[in-house]
Specification:
Layout lengths: L10 E8 L2 E7 H4 L6 H8 L10 E7 L8 E7 L9 H14 L5 E6 L2 E7 L5 E5 L3 E11 L2 E9 L3 E6 L8 H9 L10 E9 L2 E8 L4 E3 L3 H13 L6 E5 L5 E7 L2 E6 L2 E8 L1 H4 L5
Parallel strand pairs: 2-3, 4-5, 10-11, 12-14
Antiparallel strand pairs: 1-2, 1-17, 3-4, 5-6, 6-7, 7-16, 8-9, 9-10, 11-12, 12-13, 14-15, 15-16
Length: 284
């Protein structure tokens, strides 16, 4: 009979989801995994069926004294690429940081894109203030997957292309998204690709092809914000919108004085132990 001790040292993890974007989160204060090993961990832990399975892996640490932040994260996509920012990931990391005692309900998360102010609300949702949107490029005409598309671009912590459609339910998101994601106009790093339908001045429908996941995901927080920023700049919506994602969840986006706020649910699905030796993982 196999005993737990025979499996080797276990590592505690938490599985969270924010509007269908799922993440494995590890408290790195205990694990102390060096950064040079994190990419391989992301690839193997996020792999469905063989690992835990997730869109991304997040390591949480106490932010250095004097940094102006409370919590530091290392965020990796499922393919092992390091991401500057992730809106739904930030909300999940924020809520878990509060639950673990890393920070209070209001705190600052240090990301590769810059500091992100976070607040765990009384209803359990989390509101984050993203870094300011930059590099707004509206109305680029591109050939992608044999189609001519009007593509808008903005960086909301990570790069996002936005395409407006009459009926987003008919979009071939994987084919078109892949073509836009790897288009030479966004080389060398590529971009996320968002397909958006304007329901009215306060409501968008959104489907997103995420860079690093290389497929459509149930939701994308920075993509929701990018879509809202573009839509508002074109006069299609007001400064506050609800964004319904592929998973059916609703994200709230507010634009105020150059700031971009994202609000939505963040839930702990389960916690457990993973065994690095079984996954062939280094560093422990």
């Amino acid at each position: 009979m196999c005993t737990v001790s025979a499996l080797g040292k276990g590592v505690a993890f938490h599985k969270m989801q924010g509007c269908g974007n799922d993440f494995v989160i590890i408290d790195n204060r205990e694990l102390r995994l060096p950064v040079e090993h994190m990419r391989e961990w992301a690839i193997k832990v996020c792999r469905k069926c063989f690992g835990v399975g997730a869109d991304g892996l997040i390591f949480l640490e106490q932010a250095p004294a004097g940094s102006g932040a409370d919590v530091l994260w290392h965020f990796y996509n499922a393919d092992g690429s390091r991401a500057e920012m992730c809106g739904n990931g930030a909300r999940c990391a924020s809520k878990l940081s509060s639950l673990l005692g890393l920070a209070g309900k209001s705190h600052v998360l240090s990301t590769d894109a810059g500091p992100v102010a976070c607040e765990v609300l009384d209803n359990g949702q989390v509101k984050v203030r993203l870094t300011p949107a930059t590099d707004l490029r509206p109305g680029q005409e591109l050939d992608a997957a044999g189609q001519k598309l009007t593509v808008h671009f903005v960086n909301t912590g990570v790069p996002h292309a936005v395409v407006f459609l009459q009926d987003v339910s008919l979009a071939d998101v994987k084919r078109l998204g892949n073509a836009v994601r790897f288009h030479e106009a966004f080389a060398p790093k590529g971009t996320n690709a968002n397909f958006v339908q304007v329901k009215d001045s306060g409501h968008l429908l959104l489907r997103t092809y995420e860079r690093g996941v290389e497929d459509e995901t149930y939701a994308c927080g920075t993509g929701a914000c990018a879509s809202a920023v573009i839509a508002h700049s074109l006069g299609l919506t007001g400064p506050e919108v609800e964004v319904t994602t592929t998973g059916g969840e609703v994200l709230g986006v507010s634009l105020a004085g150059g700031d971009v706020y994202l609000r939505g649910a963040a839930e702990v699905c389960f916690s457990g132990q993973l065994y690095p030796a079984a996954l062939g993982l280094p560093g422990v």
